[in-house]
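Q: Mind making up any chain with structure tokens?
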Amino acid sequence: MASPSNPIVSRSESVLGVIYAGAAFLIWGLAPVYWKALGAVAPLEIIAHRVAWSFFFLLALIVLQRQWNRLVAILENPRMLLILLLTAILVGVNWLLYVWAVNNNHLLQASLGYYINPLVNVVLGMVFLRERLRPPQILAVVLATIGVLYLTIQYGAFPWIAVGLAMSFGLYGLIRKVAPVSPLVGLTVETLLLSFPAIGYLLYLNIQGTGSIFRVSLNLDLLLMGCAPLTTVPLLFFTAGAKRLYLSTVGLMQYIGPSGMFLLAVFYYHEPFSTTQVWTFVMIWSALAIYSTDSVIYFRRHR
């Protein structure tokens, strides 16, 4: 972030950071509309296209930003390749589960997953990074856990979509946090590793005559290719915004994404929203309010 000694520059950088981060979270919040438009395509095929086209898109960015040497250095490092193979699997599972949930009318559960993700991050930090939880954080985690258990007991079924999304993305973030690689290079290597099975699967579909691209319509072809910028642009916006903002600000803004998903699910796609779900979301939102308030207070005290 810009130096506090120059308030004009700092203020302009902060405004730019809010614009970048806000755009990223807004895109993520409205992305279900895009995935719904691909509803006629199987989720696995969508993810294969998302991986393949994203890799070529990212590779072009690597060349434009002259980060080829960094990419080669990672590819020549077996340990980093193994780490990024693990994160690639995690992000691939997250993408597949998310698209499947959206296109099978489980958008509410998907939004719930990304609401509880920050609290999952807190628990993962405690377990793997030996971070100590403050009392308000403990209260927030307990309240969120009660919400998930309440939903499970009332419905008689575990909300595996929400928990799966939160855990896969939480573990992905944890490993990437400790891996010494930039977001652009890291995602490029991840999509490279996933592109081998993805492209192989797409070739198989083409041979079988069941693939969607170049067979149905130009509109569908463009939508499948558009998975690349939809994947990478908000990530680059987020990175640019996070560099210019305090962590507490980014933490509060991240709820724009699941909030957009929630509003789309309830008011646009009219997914069933029962009393049980209302109480679950109330508990989750209360937990997030406690967590966010504590984070802001703690950050201001130690800034």
